[in-house]
Amino acid sequence: MTAHPPPATAGSRPQPDPRPSASTDAHPVRTVDVHAHLLLPEVEALVADLPDLAEAKALDARRNGPAAQAVSGPMVAERIPRLTDVAVRLAAMDAQGVDVQLVSPSPSHYHYWADEETAEKLYRLANEATAAHCAQAPDRLRGLGLAPLQHPEQAVRALEHAQDQGLLGVEISSHAPGRELSDPAYEPFWTRAEESGAILFLHPFGCTLDERLDQWYLSNTVGQPTENAVALSHLIFSGVLDRHPELKVIAAHGGGYLPTHIGRSDHAWSARSDAGAGCAHLPSSYLKRLYFDSLVHDPQVLRALVGAVGPDRVLLGSDFPFDMGTEDPVGALRAARLPDDDFHAVRGGNATTLLRLT
């Protein structure tokens, strides 16, 4: 899980950029943050007494290690008001100069271990609760639901349910137990998402490198970018993006390591028959069919990301309100010193088009 902290007291966190909100910089585009989370206590109450939850928590503890667990618990607890209270969320958005958030449930709510009956209850509850949260400020908040990837046939119904609730699509992880995103069982899901114009927000939860990353919060700092890169590579090399060229996928964390190291994938595709068998074009060409958030924590990497995928494929992202996000997403974007047109496209122009904001 991306560790996500609580609201800090005044002076304990970086202050937002002192200049006016980017949306008032004599430019009409609103500032849109596509990576913001919601905590759903009702989902956790649903699974609290199920026996398989203990095993899932034990796996999470092994992957993260005791030191990370000790920090993450209080951090999330502190942030509960920003994760649950719309008024607190809107005040924080105002302080950041953010006009619109695309809100998705905390990835800790995936619970891909759940059986079919529980999974259906879970996605319905999550979708309805997320829609209700966003409905309290419909001009400022848009939402994404959840889809149980452990049950591919159910994922289609979950997507349809999310859209019936007025949500723009669903958030998914980088894999499900025993299944990669290249699994043919997901073809109906990709088909439905493409046909309906749904947004799919690819946000990993946990890393399969397990105990190798259980110190120094490597489970997140190394694990999340790794999971992003692996998941996107499965979509590319398996031909999913050839078969579904209009799929709308937003990759969290700037797509992880893949966009800035895509040359190695291109070389393998050209040099080896096994690497090039599944997709029709150079892997780097598919980056321009995907979207990426700007949350890379380094202005040079952000410039490299924009260079690799194009300025029309990067969207502002903060990971609100967790500690591995940024308190000042517009300031972080400004630090990359992009050309003005690219800056405003990433700040909100691209998301306004993708999310069909009016």
User: Percent range for helical residues?
Assistant: 40-55%
Named CATH topology: TIM Barrel
The oligomeric state is single chain
What is the number of domains? Answer: 1
CATH superfamily: Metal-dependent hydrolases
Ends: how far apart?
Answer: 33 Å
Q: Taking all residues together, what is the mean pLDDT?
A: 93
Shape: globular
| CATH architectural group | Alpha-Beta Barrel
Separate helix tally: 17
Strand line-up across the major sheet: 4-5-8-9-10-11
| Low-pLDDT sequence parts | 1-22
Main sheet: strands, sense, barrel: 6 strands, parallel
Provide the gyration radius in Å: 19 Å
Give the helix/strand class.
alpha/beta
- Write down the CATH class: Alpha Beta
Beta-strand percentage?
5-15%
